[in-house]
């Protein structure tokens, strides 16, 4: 963990739409304020605890670039 990771301030609001190849569409249960947090995502099957880094770097971009994003 670098010093920059600790100093990075984020503001990802609750109910942000995400997409996971494994779980499908979901949304953040709480907001994200730090890259090193773990955050709950609500998927159709239930909740999953996922790192904020994975949400920010993979799941949010996947939702934004998904061809069916406007249908969610």
Tell me which oligomeric state these chains represent.
Answer: single chain
The count of helical stretches stands at 2
Please give the alpha-carbon distance between the first and last residues.
35 Å
Percent helix range = 25-40%
Major sheet: arrangement of strands? 1-2-3-4
Order of helices and strands: HEEEEH
Percent strand equals 25-35%
Q: What overall form do the CA principal axes indicate?
A: globular
Work out the radius of gyration: 12 Å
Largest sheet: 4 strands, antiparallel
* Average pLDDT metric: 88
Structural classification = alpha+beta
The beta-strand count equals: 4
Describe this structure in words.
The chain is 26% helix and 29% strand. It is built from two helices and four strands. Strands 1-2-3-4 form a four-stranded antiparallel β-sheet. The protein has helices at 3-7, 52-65, and strands spanning 17-20, 24-28, 38-43, 46-51. It has a domain at 1-34. The N and C termini lie far apart (35 Å). The model has no long low-confidence stretch (mean pLDDT 88). The longest helix has 14 residues, at 52-65. A hairpin with a 3-residue loop joins β1 and β2 (24-28). It has 72 residues and is of the alpha+beta class. The chain is globular.
Highlighted features:
29% strand, 72 residues, alpha+beta, single chain
SSE blueprint and pairings:
Layout: H1 3-7, E1 17-20, E2 24-28, E3 38-43, E4 46-51, H2 52-65
Antiparallel strand pairs: 1-2, 2-3, 3-4
């Amino acid at each position: 963990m670098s010093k920059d990771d600790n100093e990075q301030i984020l503001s990802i609001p609750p109910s942000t739409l995400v997409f996971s190849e494994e779980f499908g569409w979901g949304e953040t249960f709480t907001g994200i304020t730090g890259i090193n947090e773990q955050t709950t995502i609500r998927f159709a099957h239930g909740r999953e605890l996922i790192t904020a880094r994975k949400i920010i770097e993979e799941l949010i971009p996947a939702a934004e670039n998904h061809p069916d994003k406007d249908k969610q």
